[in-house]
Specification:
The protein is an alpha+beta fold. The chain contains 15 helices and 13 strands. It starts with 5 loop residues before the first helix and ends in a 7-residue tail after the last strand. About 0% of the residues have low confidence.
């Protein structure tokens, strides 16, 4: 049967069903008829032996035909020969034993022919039964007209109609089931093809993908996952797993797969697999929650990607930048020192002094740029960043010192700095690092403001937090550039097209310092409406790292 088409299989199934139906109907009638004939013989109700034998022979001959003839090879209408023969045989049997109740057996062939041939079979079978029934009554002078003379054909006809309706209903249900079965089969085939396609795609990509059920079982995995992580992630031992710095061993519960099994979700966790040295691999791992259609938890999908080359390239770049910056800082410090000595001389002419001051300002600016590059290089290094030495400090004093240092530059452009709302507020901070943040914010507010503008600085305490705000009435920042303000080396289009100098590193460094204190920094700005930078810091030491 495996080589047959779907239509051929359905046709073969229909043929088998028809043969079984014919055999079942005929043998059932023969069995009941055999019992009825036996009872009629035993109690002596057979009046015409010849007719009785003829009817029995015809009935059992039809039964033999039902068993031996391959009906599925013949036209469907030929099957009507059997119920017609049964009706005639029952008529002969009833005529030979009119009081034996054999006429009731007409219900069997009438129901059969009604179910098989529809309304035509119902009408034809009922008329044939009624005709033979009335004919046997008419030729027998002993039998008289009674209610049963009319009632028996009506009952047989009613049973035939019921059989017809039941058969039609069953046929409709069968067709519906076949249609649903075909649709389900197509859906299964489509789902199988989609599953095969997804499997092929997952095995073709170079990043690992696994799915974890809510019970923590791995149900989907691709070849790349096995190649990238191997056994180190599947058993979640963490024996060969290290943090982003490449040297800090991860606890078994901190390994990405273990975290995902516990229900955690995370983005781009960098993990090194393998002992420090050659042959190790860096992966960035992301775990995201899956949900069913009804919103219930469907597990977690974990995606891992090999970033060894990128991590090594970043480290090499940062090492190069740091090395070059270190080499530049020493001669720049020496140059600034000699320029300061030269400016201390009293015999300098006006032009010489002006030239030396220009050289000193540019050397100092270059030294600040080198310092910023070194700081941001430290931030980018895994496990790196600024170090803090927290101690109780008055933020108002730090702000006033920063404002005082910025006043000369602000005065050159007629910019005023308002510190009316700077209140004495104490917090546990690294005063030098917070001074660096405030210097950067006030310097930016002055540098990117318009001539004659205003800068407002505020310091206040709220519950267990302190707030530092620097606001200006400058040109503001566009919405498209606002989200990139804290990126390293970012400078807006307006600044790049102006003569205002800057490295684009100050805000990135400030953000890291604030976060190391356990705080946050944000900006509220609109184009043409100035900008307000707000720093929130914890007042206590517990949040300072």
């Amino acid at each position: 049967m495996a080589w047959l088409s779907e239509s051929e299989r359905r046709a073969r199934k229909r043929d088998d069903t028809r043969d079984r139906s014919i055999l079942l109907n005929q043998t059932l009638l023969s069995g009941v008829g055999l019992v009825a004939m036996g009872v009629a013989v035993l109690i002596g109700q057979v009046l015409d032996t010849t007719t009785f034998v003829l009817g029995a022979t015809l009935l059992f001959g039809a039964t033999a035909a039902a068993i031996l003839v391959p009906w599925h090879r013949l036209p469907f209408w030929v099957v009507a020969v059997l119920p017609v023969a049964d009706i005639v045989a029952l008529a002969l049997l009833r005529h030979s034993a009119p009081n034996g109740g054999i006429g009731l057996l007409w219900a069997f062939p009438a129901m059969w022919i009604g179910a098989a041939f529809g309304i035509v079979g119902v009408v034809g079978g009922t008329l044939l039964v009624a005709t033979l029934f009335w004919f046997t009554i008419a030729i027998d002078p002993v039998q008289v007209f009674t209610v049963s003379t009319v009632l028996l054909p009506l009952v047989v006809g009613a049973l035939a109609i019921i059989s017809f309706l039941a058969a039609r209903r069953a046929d409709a249900q069968r067709q519906l089931l076949e249609k649903q079965s075909r649709h389900l089969g197509r859906s299964v085939d489509r789902a199988r093809r989609q599953e095969d396609l997804v499997t092929e795609v997952l095995d073709a990509v170079d990043f690992g993908v696994i799915r974890i059920t809510p019970d923590g079982e791995l149900v989907v995995t691709n070849e790349a996952h096995a190649q990238l992580q191997g056994g180190a992630s599947d058993d979640a031992t963490g024996a060969l797993a290290y943090a982003a710095d490449g040297v800090t061993p991860l606890d078994p519960s901190e390994v990405p797969i273990a975290r995902a099994r516990d229900g955690d979700t995370f983005e781009n966790q960098v993990v090194w697999y393998g002992e420090p040295g050659s042959g190790r691999r860096a992966l960035t791992v992301t775990a995201r929650r899956l949900t069913e259609i009804d919103g219930t938890n469907a597990g977690v999908i974990v995606v891992s990607r090999d970033v060894t080359a990128e991590e090594q390239a970043l480290r090499a770049r940062e090492d190069l930048v740091a090395s070059v910056s270190h080499e530049l800082r020493t001669p720049l410090t020496s140059i600034i020192g000699y320029l300061e000595l030269a400016l201390d001389r009293d015999d300098l002419s006006g032009d010489s002094r002006h030239d030396l001051e220009v050289a000193e300002r540019n050397a100092a600016r270059l030294l600040e740029l080198v310092a910023d590059i070194l700081s941001v290089s430290s931030l980018a290094r895994p496990g790196g960043g600024v170090t803090l030495d927290p101690a109780p400090a008055d933020l108002a004093a730090i702000v006033h010192a920063s404002v005082e240092a910025e006043l000369p530059k602000a005065a050159d452009r007629r910019i005023s700095i308002d510190t009316t709302f700077v209140a004495s507020t104490f917090a546990v901070v690294d005063a030098q690092r917070i001074r660096q943040v405030i210097d950067n914010l006030i310097d930016n507010a002055v540098k990117y403001n318009v001539d004659g503008g205003k800068v407002f600085v505020e310091v206040s305490g709220e519950d267990d937090r302190v707030r530092i705000a620097v606001r200006d009435d400058g040109p503001g920042i566009s919405e498209g550039e606002r989200s990139r303000l804290f990126e390293r080396f970012f400078r807006s289009d307006a600044v790049r097209n102006s003569t205002t100098h800057g490295s684009g590193l100050g805000l990135a460094i400030s953000e890291d310092i604030v976060r190391r204190h356990g705080g946050e920094i944000s900006v509220d700005t609109r184009l043409g409406e100035g900008a307000t930078f707000t720093v929130w810091l914890p007042a206590t030491r517990e949040s300072v790292s």
